[in-house]
Write a structure and sequence with these properties.
single chain, 179 residues, alpha+beta, three-stranded antiparallel beta sheet, 20% helix
Length: 179
């Protein structure tokens, strides 16, 4: 039995879960998320607790067991509290500015400003010109949008300039050795 897959998922008050044989939908105060289910995985709802079960002990079924449980847990967490990724901009003249809640304008040393549009369900917050917060209810989408922003100017190893995650450590190189 998968250690992750066999753990029950508590459903907090205010969250409704509807399970069909091929999909699960979670609705909460922040929104609604839906996920399709593989045929060998089923979800059993018992009051305010969800349990993920698999049909057999095949290797692929065991692999999907923990995955589906984690995806459903992330859906429940997303519709109740949401997810957030923080990015930091390091470099002279590098900055970000919010254009409403659905667009971001970045000055990253190019000859033009870079505009990033937020997909549905994603919100940008810029508390300081060098800090970007990506908020949303879908964990995968929040991470992907943050990665797309970071991709515009990855942190370089010599001076550490670029866009990095708030908890990311950039290994620095020594550079040229002088004579």
């Amino acid at each position: 039995m998968s250690r992750i897959g066999k753990a029950p998922i508590p459903v907090p008050a205010g969250v409704t879960v509807s399970v069909t044989p091929d999909a699960v939908t979670v609705t909460g105060p922040k929104g609604e998320l839906s996920q399709s289910l593989p045929g060998v995985i089923s979800i059993v709802q018992d009051g305010d607790v969800l349990t993920v079960e698999r049909a057999d002990d095949a290797k692929s079924s065991r692999a999907l067991h923990g995955l589906v449980r984690s995806l459903v847990q992330n859906m429940v967490t997303g519709v109740t509290t949401g997810f957030q990724k923080n990015l930091e901009i390091v470099g002279v003249g590098f900055r970000a500015a919010a254009k409403g809640k659905d667009a971001l304008e970045l000055s990253l040393g190019f000859s033009h400003p870079v505009t990033v549009e937020a997909p549905d369900g994603i919100e940008f917050v810029v508390p300081q010109p060098t800090v970007i917060e990506v908020h949303g209810i879908d964990k995968q989408l929040v991470g992907q949008v943050a990665a797309n922003i970071r991709r515009w100017r990855k942190p370089e190893p010599y001076k550490g300039k670029g866009i990095r995650y708030a908890d990311e450590h950039v290994r620095r190189k020594a550079g040229k050795a002088g004579k």
